[in-house]
Amino acid sequence: MRRTLGGGAAVLSAALLACGSRAPSGFTLLFLGRSPAASVDGLSWAPDPERSRLVAFDRQLRLARRLTSPRLGTPMAVAALPGGRLLVTERTGEGVVLDTAGQPVREWDSPDVASLYAASAGRIVAARSPYYVPELGSPEPDTAPLLRVLDTLGHPVEGLATIRVPAVPFLTHLVNAGAVAVGPDGSVYYAPLVRDEIRKYAPSGAPRWTARRGLISKESEPVFLPARGKELRLAKALVNVALALGPDGRLYALGADDSAATKLRVDVLDTATGAIVATRHLGPRETAVAVSAAGGGGLATFDGDSLLGAAPAAPALAREPFAPAFALPDLGGDTVTLSQFAGKVTLVNFWASWCDPCREEFPHMAELYREFDRRDFEIAAISDDVDRGKMRAFVQQFRPPFPILVGGGRMKQTYHYRGLPYSVLLDRRGRVIERIFGFGGADEFRELHETIAKEVHAP
């Protein structure tokens, strides 16, 4: 479960902590958590996957803007596209292009099981994502490209290099997943997740150099360990996490200091030769990495939680309207519109009978519904089932006290959410207070109750 405040591009200002001191001026963010950031319009944009949003920092690393959208379920990486646009990698591999106001430009499906995208100077490259790796992937031929060059619609137009086929072909995705970055000249940098290598490819795809950090004394391919019941177990070393090109023209590699990637380090590489020119071992709280925007200022690390937590909540005036407004039939065939909920705090919930977390969530929603007066709070639970029989069987089983609306399998295409359940809490004027992705159990609903109670009594 991830909850995101509404408010789109609210401008915020706050003094921030940099591992106990004020952030130095003139810095560009490279990594936030384990994700690469991108510099667009003078701001450093980074994903905040736990809150299903993008955040932007100014050159003093003050949180300047934040973007939420139903299209941002679990954003894992941000890259810059021409025209001040942001290319966002979703955990499940979709590519989402937004402008810096948060308006969607386009979206595409992953060319792999799950892809990671990088871009520079209009060139877009996709690698197998290190953020979502299936335990067992479909085997691929040894002629399959390691990296894919995409056009601006997300369609593959050419391949770069070829994959490594492991002894166990079902581990192909794991062996070839990795971090990727694109240079301003079109060069591509790639670092496999489970191998101690960082490679540079020319724009043509020709190999230029391979660097190693000596993290593993004896390297081997991932292998299966004896199973524990139904649990699949692998022996593997996690090595490379993310890549970013700094404003100083150097390549920054975020990688593991141990085989489980519980301790991290940053290596700085000369892009011409692949030589490692500096290494910084990160402490537990050093979860944001920045570099001097002007170059020559060196590497700086920060407490990422402090950077994110220093800003106040978005003001009510910045809330965006819920759209598009719905007009859907209820179980009796009568049309119910969004405008009928005006004047009430409303939870719009999207669900389906085949969604197991939805089954867990419905009793909590029923309890929440009974805790507030109908003059103040409502729930509109919209089914996205195609099969009406299964939808009605679900309703018969749970007998919800709140209205059920029939979406007819068209809701995901209309509201562009990543998965179910998905809920949007609206204020009395129909504006988004927050979005809730997935089901977070009793704790989530206690927090939701508090939020609703405050909103109900707000002037």
Inertia-based shape: globular
Structural class: mainly beta
Q: What count of helical segments does DSSP give? A: 6
For the termini, the CA-CA separation is 29 Å
Care to give the gist of this entry?
Helix content is 13%, strand content 39%. It has six helices and 36 strands. The longest helix is centred in the C-terminal third of the chain and has 16 residues, at 441-456.
List its traits.
459 residues; four-stranded antiparallel sheet; 39% strand
Write the layout of secondary structure elements.
Layout: E1 2-5, E2 17-18, E3 21-22, E4 27-32, E5 35-36, E6 38-40, E7 43-48, E8 53-57, E9 63-68, E10 75-81, E11 85-90, E12 95-99, E13 104-108, E14 115-120, E15 123-128, E16 145-150, E17 156-162, H1 172-176, E18 178-182, E19 188-192, E20 198-201, E21 207-211, E22 223-228, E23 231-235, E24 240-245, E25 251-256, E26 264-269, E27 276-281, E28 288-292, E29 299-302, H2 304-309, E30 327-329, E31 335-337, E32 345-351, H3 356-370, E33 377-383, H4 388-398, E34 404-406, H5 411-415, E35 422-426, E36 432-437, H6 441-456
Helix pairs in contact: 3-6
